[in-house]
Design goal:
14-stranded mixed beta sheet, 14 strands, globular
Length: 283
């Protein structure tokens, strides 16, 4: 007799070996919540104002662009519990939007793309959460503390397509009341054999409870250790198809964005993670 799927457990391919291990499920199949001690994280962020017309063409159905501000965050994570102490790096590109669902209207940040330096979080995040994750070569943060300078870069196959840096960094007081903005993502899975059709196409959100649900007390999983602000600069580099055969269609529209003004640049050190079991489909 073969196996049956355990109700309530998270599976990913291959399913033949039981419930999957990962950031939202422990080895015994029980849920994995947030952690106050993992990971140890440094996040750089640079935001710039651009031409709204060039962002509007990137809006999916039901989305309306807010301020024409692009924020790029690079998160360097170490000592991750679900990876047995290992780490990886993440770069995300976000824009402020309002999404008009069938029952909900949500203002938040639409994640246009996420690059990650490890396959495991890419697979789990795409399949379980609907996050738009792809692979990128993201070396560890170059942080010259004495000079107040930090540098981030992303590449693929040796071609460097994103570079930004923060200079003149000054330590700032930690704002414990910082507002948390919902994150919005478009989950899309093609239907096998019926090319051009979707098996799944819907919007997911993190950081926002379901309408009408019982409010859950907010657990403060993350501790901010230090925060710096400074002067930022950012550049996407245009690529040929030969240089980025699977990413040039993503990188080049971002490289076309005009950087009219860098409006914010920061580096933040934190410990802990809230986890993402609360991600849900927008109604």
């Amino acid at each position: 007799m073969g196996y049956e799927f355990v109700k309530g457990a998270i599976y990913r391919m291959p399913t033949h070996f039981g419930p999957a291990l990962g950031p939202r499920q422990m080895a015994n199949g029980s849920p994995r919540a947030g952690s106050k001690t993992s990971p140890h994280t440094h996040t750089t962020a640079v935001s710039f104002r651009t031409d709204p017309a060039k962002l509007t063409v990137l809006m999916p159905p039901g989305f309306e662009l807010g301020q024409p501000i692009v924020s790029i965050t690079c998160t360097y994570m170490k000592e991750i519990d679900w990876l047995a102490g290992r780490g990886y790096n993440v770069v995300g590109v976000n824009v402020p939007v309002t999404y008009y669902g069938k029952r909900e209207v949500i203002s938040g940040l639409l994640r246009l793309v996420t690059w990650e330096s490890l396959a495991d979080p890419i697979i789990t995040g795409r399949e379980e959460l609907g996050f738009p994750k792809v692979y990128g070569e993201i070396p560890d943060l170059e942080w010259e503390r004495a000079r107040g300078r930090a540098r981030t870069q992303v590449g693929w196959g040796g071609f460097k397509f994103l570079e930004y840096e923060i200079t003149n960094m000054v330590e700032k007081p930690i704002d414990t009341a910082e507002e948390r903005v919902p994150g919005l993502h478009v989950k899309y899975v093609p239907r096998t054999g019926e090319w051009g059709e979707a098996d799944v196409c819907y919007v997911t959100v993190n950081g926002l409870p379901k309408p009408g649900s019982q409010p859950v007390p907010r657990q403060n999983w993350v501790t901010t250790v230090k925060r710096f602000t400074g002067k930022g600069s950012v550049a996407f580099n245009h690529a040929t198809w030969e240089q980025l055969p699977t990413l040039s269609n993503i990188v080049n529209p971002l490289a076309d964005l005009d950087v009219f003004e860098v409006v914010a640049a920061s580096l933040t050190e934190t410990i802990g993670s809230a986890g993402l079991r609360g991600v849900r489909i927008v109604e």
